[in-house]
Amino acid sequence: SDRAEGDEFGWSVDISGTTIVIGAHFEDHNVAGGGYIYNAGSAYIFEREGGTWNETQKIVGSGRAADIDFPDGGGGDELSDLFGGSVSISGNRMIIGAHHSDFNEDGGSPLNEAGAAYIFERTGVTWNEVAKLDNSDRAIEDRFGYSVSIDGDFAVVSAYSEDQNEVGGTTMTNSGSVYVFERDGGGSWSEMQKVVASD
Length: 199
Known about the structure:
Layout lengths: L8 E8 L2 E6 L17 E8 L2 E8 L26 E5 L2 E6 L17 E8 L2 E8 L10 E8 L2 E6 L17 E7 L5 E7 L4
Antiparallel strand pairs: 1-2, 2-3, 3-4, 5-6, 6-7, 7-8, 9-10, 10-11, 11-12
């Protein structure tokens, strides 16, 4: 509904029943059309009513922030969070990746492109953010959130530039890893396992 040059709406898509989520990882504005942050990213929800698909909501991450120019020379690429670079929906739950996010789940500990992922849940007709996820061993340029998937009480998030094995050793540059999260009965999401390739 607020299309603009360079948004790259449709970079990522997923569908569940009569709901579609579409990522626009280069979109710049908050849900109200203000709060300009270059390439912060957003996602759009469409619902099918009769034979027509209508946009019902625009969502952004609560921790959206501009790219940081780190003193060690990292950052400064002006790509900001890239929220919406990956999306996945399952029933009333959704996960959206922001693999260039610099801040942890509490909004602190900035690390260049460490990455993050956001969980949203639908109440009635409205999608609300319920969790921001990051990996337990987050590090500079992990790019956690590059790809995501959700199914019921489980979510998986990739970090394709992560360097260490499942116990935090045997460093191999950009070997990559995947993290599995589970939702408990109280609605909290926790990392359950880190997965790496056997070879």
